[in-house]
């Protein structure tokens, strides 16, 4: 079927190519375009993109250089693959290159891309971004959500502990998506996912996967593209996701608008409230002038688009990053061991909880996250569109040209990175390279006017998550997967995550008197020796019940110098019955009888230690 579709499409386009060929040639153009591979009419260089786009671009850049021109269908696209060229785009020419090309998926989802992420550079984008910063993403707001992040991490530890006790694998992909979704939904929307039955994190994954699909209209932004999308039912799945997302957004808005709406402990001034306040200020809620339908139309659109940005930007990228970090740590046991040693030494062995105050104490965790961003940026291609003519590395690039910056390739460029393919967090010790858009060899959050506004929100989630996972647990691959190791296959075109779920078996960190005790070790506790230890007992070998007069030592498992019934989870459940039998028995034996030793010889035997005679 796939071959038939491909053949149909190819012959269809080739036929049309001859008709369009003449029209597309412009011999009078003075443009000096960047070099690039020869292209077919109509399809251009689309046939060269087989596999993950950033890897294909990397291969092509080896031949055509760090600034090359591709034709992706009808869309001229300049691919930038060097730090210097990236700096020229994102810093020198930021204003001229800070628009975005139109993508059919988001365009449909958002009724014309009037959100933040996919919006053209215009007043509406500026306003939306300002509101998002004001109401949700500035440092002060982010700090006010600290208790939410800490509570959610406590929940994470509890869930993982349950699997650890059963020694069963945890699907970390699902777990991380749930945790990031839960944090984002509580912080931004006042929605507590623990109280909801629908699986929002699954909707996030589904939305991301659906948007990531190839669409003809991305490369042929004309009727031909729409027709082909319609013909091959490319939007069927998207329509379904739109409906689900719509229902969720509507629910958030309805709950917000209800005067007696659900009260939660979480901050009421979340971003939805902020947007409504903004609309109110602008007079859109003046019901005397507008009818209710109009008002609702305005009210629905803004929160909806911001909710959408949070879904993709906030949840997807955060979860993807944590998954990559854990996968790399499993592949690099040296780094895992070092991180755990450092965290556990600094935080000590008696912690029941880790808070954000602990984050700055452990530098190595920050280096690990940086290194993971370098090797696995969740968005490996930054996508821009020129607003006017720009010159990049001496090449002229006309307005309305898409620019893709291959940050994946730049972060592995041997010109800037020693052993670029290896996971070495130590490379950042004493290095001034940071990921906030100033150093163009490391751009996981982009740079310039379109830099990710969610950095302050994203980083504490990653750091706190990793601290918890490495402090409380040791990790191993599930039985049967140990020989294969961790697979690192990638998936996706816009955001790129690990293709297969990451399954790992946790073990609760066990430390006894400073000694690390590995999983599945047998432990014998010598209760006999402890109960005769002269450190705790005077004349320990003497039978002297009086030692317990006015003494708080009991045998119920709370005083560890006397544990005849054991202690903890496995304490003897028959203790109470046994004690009643013994007490009643002894009472009877002592009340009704006097006792003496048997005849002399046998008594002597007992006194000399022959207990069988008793
Ligand atoms: C590990 C986590 C994250 C990564 C790696 C990441 C990465 C990025 C990147 C590379 C961009 C494009 C920047 C550019 O074009 O120069 C971006 C844009 C954006 N991100 Fe993030 N992001 C993350 C988390 C978040 C969070 C937590 C939020 C919000 C809560 C968020 C919201 C956005 C928005 C709204 C944009 C669009 C900005 C614009 O076009 O003006 N991101 N992000």
UniProtKB/TrEMBL annotation:
> What is the required cofactor set for this protein?
heme
Grouped into one coarse class, the protein's main location is membrane
Q: What membrane topology does this protein have?
A: Single-pass membrane protein
Q: Record-annotated residues binding heme?
A: 452
What is one cellular component GO term in this UniProt entry? membrane
Signal sequence residues: none
**What sections of the protein cross the membrane?**
6-21, 305-327
As one GO molecular function, the record gives:
heme binding
The answer on whether this UniProt entry bears the keyword DNA-binding reads no
Annotated PROSITE patterns: CYTOCHROME_P450 (PS00086)
The UniProt similarity line reads: Belongs to the cytochrome P450 family.
PANTHER family (alphabetical): CYTOCHROME P450 71B11-RELATED (PTHR47956), CYTOCHROME P450 71B2 (PTHR47956:SF93)
What is the protein named? Cytochrome P450
Instruction: Look up and give the organism this protein is from.
Output: Microthlaspi erraticum
